[in-house]
User: Which sequence fits this backbone?
């Protein structure tokens, strides 16, 4: 898979106090699609979105993706990653 053109990384997290979930899809031009899921892990609402993104980034590094675009439904996470919002330490 080395040297492929643009890839898309789709990440989504779902928060639940009893156990959160995350789904990750990494695909290239619909000819290659890799999917990964995380189930029932403890985290906060925003952390679940970050966990999904981190797993997606690890997956893209594993397959040596060079060019990537990411889609996420969390405005907070997207804005922090793009540098539009600052992350706060709590």
Assistant:
């Amino acid at each position: 898979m080395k040297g492929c053109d643009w890839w898309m990384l789709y990440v989504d997290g779902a928060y639940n106090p009893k156990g959160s979930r995350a789904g990750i899809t990494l695909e290239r031009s619909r000819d290659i699609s890799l999917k990964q899921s995380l189930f029932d892990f403890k985290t906060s609402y925003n952390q679940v979105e970050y966990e999904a993104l981190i797993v997606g980034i690890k997956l893209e590094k594993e397959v040596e993706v060079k060019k990537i675009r990411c889609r996420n439904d969390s405005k907070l996470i997207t804005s922090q990653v793009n540098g539009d919002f600052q992350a706060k330490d709590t």
